[in-house]
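Appendix B, record 7
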Amino acid sequence: MSNPKVSVCLITYNQEKYIAKALDSILEQKTNFKYEVIAGEDCSTDNTKQIIQDYIDKYPHIIKPAFNEINKQGQYLVDLVLKAKGEYVALLEGDDYWCDVYKLQKQVDFLDKNKDFSYCCHRFYIEYEKENFEMRHKCLEEHFSDEKYKEYREVELHNFASPYISKTLTVMFRKDIFIKNNIQNYSDCMGDIVLFGMLLKNEKAAVLNEHLGVFRLRSSGNFHSTSEENKFTVLTENFLTLNKYYDNKILSIKKRSINEISRLVGMLKEQNPESTEKILKFEEMKKKLQIEMCKD
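Structure tokens (predicted):
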């Protein structure tokens, strides 16, 4: 039996309310190639795992389980990618969904045609959910106002982490680049920013000018509901990991690392001034980065 062209890695944790919609949006895809779903589940405390299992029982030829016995967080994403048999890997988190049945086909067509791109993502809708009120709007309007970006816009290290460009639900990447760039060795600090930044080593990517998915921004989401301190800490550590990966040689990453440290330290001093050890640690990191900047 031949391997699938695409592996969809589904990332889930405590998303019982949304997971069926995510799975349905995958199964509705119309393609001229075979694809598989690696359905990850990171020890949810709700009914997410059972809902996924019900889908596996119904579609065992497409959906493969990847259930964790312990919560793995960053390691979890790497595990899913390593299980993937496809040439390309697409990502989807369990509370988001795709809204175009040709999403996978369009991204495969682009990557097949453009061999020098390590990944492609696309525009998407943001769906706000708060107190039973939902509102959706288009994202990245300002990035595609120029006619020269009618089909797609290139992404490089200097802009890949700009707000809402490389969003998890939009990305499809080449698995061989993942292996070649040794991304699997960074599982202890893996996040979407780390993954996308490492995929751009000696490569480039593209944002397709089509709205193919929906990102749910909800009050109880995995990241958006965490404390401000945790958000800023994770984001800062993501950029510090990338800076180390690139041996302090990428100016844009060093600048972003310094900016994120400044935001984190400022927030800590205002909201949690007693965390002096953490503040001093990040201020020392900032000084070292600034010294490195002066050498450039």
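Remarks on this record: The longest strand covers residues 204-218. The radius of gyration is 19 Å.
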